Amino acid sequence: EVKLVESGGGLVQPGGSLKLSCAASGFAFSTYTMNWVRQAPGKGVEWVSTINSRGGTTSYADSVKGRFTISRDNAKNMLYLQLSSLKTEDTAMYYCSGASSRGQGTQVTVSS
Fold it and tell me: Which of 103, 95, 108, 82 has the alpha carbon at shortest distance from 1?
């Protein structure tokens, strides 16, 4: 069974940082491209970032480029998203996705 479990969300002030983690199990994690997506209250799902299976290629939505960094540790079956210079508009539930699955999400709230 594919399982993706996100953690690391929380309440942070504008300009602050957080690091999100996603623990993967039940599939050959190291062979899959992985993604982070988010959903703000009352809005649709927004793609945030993608990383290829080996971690050598990454891509970002324009809204987060230069502020967020995606990474992975295939030895630990872990996916990460470093969030920096956070803005109020980054407030959303963040999900990792891959292998045709998505986790339950971790809430990020940016507020003063």
Answer: 103
Tens of pLDDT, residue by residue, the chain (112 residues): 999 999 999 999 999 999 999 999 999 999 999 999 999 999 999 999 999 999 999 999 999 999 999 999 999 999 999 999 999 999 999 999 999 999 999 999 999 9
C-beta pairs of 99-103 under 8 Å, 24+ apart in sequence: 99/2, 99/24, 99/27, 99/32, 100/2, 101/2, 101/3, 101/4, 102/4, 102/37, 103/3, 103/4, 103/5, 103/6, 103/22
